[in-house]
Specification:
five-stranded mixed beta sheet, 50% helix, 7 strands, two-stranded parallel sheet, 2 domains, Transcription Regulator spoIIAA, alpha/beta
């Protein structure tokens, strides 16, 4: 898979040039990404503007990139077509990554220090709310059962 690489300040802009990232190309794609990270590139902008289709293998390669830079840098995505974005939404990865319309917009945000606190924070908060709703509902059910056993309300 051909991937163009350009270093802008401390941000590595990677642009896959093939229109598809699937099982047949994901290993090569991931290998190239890993190599760049091992070369101390930890602030990465992945420009997916040429990508028309991505499958779960390609998505897995991008997720592995996120895991490799975790705590050491950041990753942003830009130029994503609607069909590709639908996979990110379907798998809820749209909550994990930062997305920008263009590389210009992404670079400006990254240069300004727009660090992604991200999805982990939002997802954690949502999980807390769901958990407390479940706990509250379970507590209500336990209370109702206790009331029935003890004759409350009679």
């Amino acid at each position: 898979m051909k991937i163009e690489a350009e270093k802008i300040d401390d941000i590595l802009v990677l642009t896959p040039c093939d229109p598809v990232i699937d099982a047949s190309s994901a290993a090569d794609f991931k290998g190239q990404l890993v190599t760049w990270i091992q070369e101390d590139n930890t602030r990465i902008l992945l420009d997916l503007s040429f990508i028309e289709f991505i499958d779960s293998s390609g998505l897995g390669a991008i997720i592995s990139l996120l895991k490799l830079v975790a705590g050491k840098g950041d990753i942003s995505l830009c130029g994503i077509r609607e069909q590709v974005m639908s996979l990110f939404k379907l798998t809820r990865m749209d909550r994990i990554f930062r997305f920008y319309i263009s590389s210009t917009e992404a670079l400006e945000a990254m240069k300004a220090g727009d660090k992604w606190q991200g999805a982990g924070d939002r997802r954690q908060g949502a999980g807390d709310r769901r958990q407390s709703s479940r706990e509250q509902g379970a507590g209500d059910r336990r209370q109702d059962a206790g009331d029935r056993r003890h004759g409350a309300g009679n």
